[in-house]
């Protein structure tokens, strides 16, 4: 079957699939795996979108965290912060505009909170920890998370629409964002077994020893724009269920979802005041979080440059830090050890992994590595067919407003992000000649999208490893196909030379090759015929090398360990006798005890 398609491509130079919507269907199937099945009816907003009647008042009526008449700053529409179970207007300047990426409309402004306001937030967080929350039994903390997961499940569409409004991703992708976060909340509903310690009695006569996990105190999270629901839900549910209080700083580009989640927790789930608080700001706020003496631990997801800064500053001030940084995720196609059926299935999977969310995710599949032995013309034809078919299916994807349910790919977050992606593509092609980088699909210019943040899927091939399309984390809908390598060992060495270690994949029908790949590749998350190998909450997100700073990963067992510390208690209760004074037990002396040894 595949051989005839390749032959047809050779005759016509390009083979057009009879199912050009395969990749779009894959994207939607992927989204549906992440979405809840709680509703099958069309929502009012989606019907209005379909009818081209989007009710603008929905934006105002559903956002009580926005002060539409901020008298402190010339009536500027301002996002409020969350403290003492209420939304509060900061007296700091509204320095960060929140825009709808699809339209450019300014939705409001995020303030740079003052030092006094942040100090008040941290103090109230300390008080809530010391006076109440750390004393609440774990089963009651779990019940709060159980109520939160129910609330999120019922309001998935509300959260998804807010994500699309501020982030731009498609409404279906936004539902996936919410659902993956929901899974984290579900895992926090059964945190108690992971807090169990160890004990041993009679370690020396009448001495016993017990160790257990206890909360740290005030923890903080600094979040990126690309997953406004999932990343905050990686952080505060586990931290709070473990007994900590939490200060959350969402991205200044997408603050709304964090504020809505905080409102849900307090109004509907019974969380006491100040256990979760939400603050706003840019670098000055980050500096306050990293240096405040009462903040015990900092979680961060974002760029490598910012992550290294946060890790260094927080560590300098004695804080525990976990930081997920940048990535360059490879997929190796072992062309001489893959069935035709699997190769055809791999194409839409790769398209979805590369271009979903407009490539704005740290686990996006950004790089293809084909294993083609030198001089093997049959494998060369397979490679050419696969690149051609990737382009066919990618070009069939609909790029548009995420609120439109027919869109497959939304906009980039800002015009600056779009320009950066276009600059990297230009640099990759600069000084090109016939034997160098090939532009197989150009998504930089699409009809009707001038002046917006949209960019379509782009495919580059024959890219050398010193080209900017490979050395930079593009964070856009660009798939880089490197110059082929001769063997699987060459592919593994290529991946291991890259500084990042977030994720990688191998497409093959050979189990032996898969085993070799998984054992030799130096990457924290590996997929075999799985393009985006993100672990579920019972595991941990185990990016490594240049993609992680800190020694404890997000969520799973590592996540619980990050938000807790071990305490060990040794006790000595002399044996009870009718005459206590006659007990031969000793409470210690001036010499080092031998613990019963000879």
Describe the model.
By secondary structure, the chain is an alpha/beta fold. Helices cover 38% and strands 20% of the residues. The chain contains 19 helices and 24 strands. Strand 5 and strand 6 form a beta hairpin. The longest helix is centred in the middle third of the chain and has 19 residues. The chain is globular. The N and C termini lie far apart (77 Å).
Architecture blueprint of SSEs:
Layout lengths: L1 H11 L9 H13 L9 H7 L6 H5 L4 E5 L5 E4 L1 E3 L2 E3 L5 E6 L6 E6 L3 H17 L6 H17 L1 H12 L3 H18 L9 E7 L2 E9 L2 E5 L7 H12 L3 E5 L6 H13 L7 E3 L4 H9 L3 E7 L2 H13 L3 E5 L4 E6 L5 H16 L9 E7 L5 H19 L19 H15 L8 E4 L16 E6 L4 H4 L6 E5 L5 H10 L2 E2 L2 E4 L3 H10 L5 E3 L15 E2 L2 E2 L6 H7 L1 E9 L26
Parallel strand pairs: 9-10, 9-12, 10-11, 12-13, 14-15, 14-20, 15-18, 17-18, 20-21
Antiparallel strand pairs: 1-2, 3-4, 5-6, 7-8, 8-24, 13-23, 16-17, 19-22
Helix pairs in contact: 2-8, 2-13, 6-8, 6-10, 7-8, 8-9, 11-12, 13-14
């Amino acid at each position: 079957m595949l051989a005839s398609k390749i032959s047809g491509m050779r005759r016509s130079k390009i083979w057009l699939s009879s199912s050009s919507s395969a990749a779009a269907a894959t994207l939607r199937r992927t989204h549906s795996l992440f979405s809840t099945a709680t509703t099958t009816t069309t929502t009012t907003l989606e019907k209005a979108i379909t009818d081209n009647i989007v009710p603008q008042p929905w934006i105002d009526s559903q956002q009580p965290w926005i002060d539409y008449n901020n008298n402190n700053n010339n009536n500027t529409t301002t996002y409020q912060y969350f403290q003492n179970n209420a939304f509060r207007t900061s007296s700091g300047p509204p320095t960060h505009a929140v825009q709808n990426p699809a339209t450019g409309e300014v939705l409001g402004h995020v303030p740079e909170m003052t030092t006094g306001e942040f100090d008040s937030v941290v103090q109230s967080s300390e008080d809530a920890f010391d006076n109440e929350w750390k004393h609440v039994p774990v089963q009651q903390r779990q019940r709060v998370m159980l109520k939160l997961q129910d609330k999120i499940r019922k309001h998935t569409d509300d959260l998804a629409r807010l994500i699309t409004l501020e982030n731009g991703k498609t409404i279906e992708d936004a539902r996936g964002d919410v659902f993956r976060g929901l899974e984290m909340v579900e895992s926090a509903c059964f945190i108690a077994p992971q807090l169990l310690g160890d004990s041993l009695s009679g370690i020396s006569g009448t001495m016993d020893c017990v160790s257990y996990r206890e909360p740290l105190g005030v923890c903080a999270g600094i979040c990126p724009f690309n997953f406004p629901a999932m990343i905050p839900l990686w952080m505060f549910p586990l931290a709070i269920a473990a007994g900590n209080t939490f200060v959350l700083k969402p991205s200044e580009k997408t603050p709304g979802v964090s504020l809505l989640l905080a409102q849900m927790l307090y109004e509907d789930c019974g969380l006491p005041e100040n256990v979760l608080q939400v603050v706003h700001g840019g670098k000055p706020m980050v500096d306050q979080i990293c240096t405040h003496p009462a903040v015990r631990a900092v979680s961060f997801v974002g760029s490598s440059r910012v992550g290294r800064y946060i890790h260094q500053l927080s560590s300098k001030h004695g804080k525990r830090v976990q930081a997920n940084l940048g990535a360059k995720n490879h997929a190796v196609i072992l062309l001489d050890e893959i069935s035709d059926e699997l190769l055809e299935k791999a194409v839409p999977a790769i398209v979805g992994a590369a271009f979903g969310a407009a490539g704005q995710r740290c686990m996006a599949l950004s790089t293809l590595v084909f294993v083609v032995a030198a001089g093997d013309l049959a494998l060369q034809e397979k490679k050419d067919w696969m690149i051609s078919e990737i382009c066919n299916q990618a070009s069939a994807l609909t790029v548009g407003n995420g609120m439109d349910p027919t869109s497959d790919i939304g906009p980039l977050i800002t015009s600056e992000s779009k320009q950066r992606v276009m600059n990297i593509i230009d640099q990759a092609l600069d000084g090109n000649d016939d034997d160098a980088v090939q532009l197989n699909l150009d998504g930089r210019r699409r009809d009707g999208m001038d002046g917006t943040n949209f960019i379509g899927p782009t495919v580059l091939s024959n890219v050398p490893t010193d080209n900017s399309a490979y050395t930079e984390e593009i964070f856009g809908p660009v798939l880089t196909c490197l110059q082929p390598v001769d063997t699987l060992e060459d592919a593994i060495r290529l991946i291991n030379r890259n500084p990042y270690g977030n994720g990688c994949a191998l497409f093959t029908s050979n189990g032996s090759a898969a085993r070799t790949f998984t054992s030799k590749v130096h990457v924290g998350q590996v997929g075999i015929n799985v393009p985006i190998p993100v672990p579920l909450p019972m595991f941990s997100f185990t990016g490594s090398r240049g993609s992680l700073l800190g020694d404890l990963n997000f969520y799973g067992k590592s996540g619980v360990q990050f938000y807790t510390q071990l305490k060990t208690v040794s006790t000595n209760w002399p044996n009870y006798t009718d005459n206590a004074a006659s007990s031969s037990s000793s409470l210690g002396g001036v010499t080092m005890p031998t613990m019963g040894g000879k």
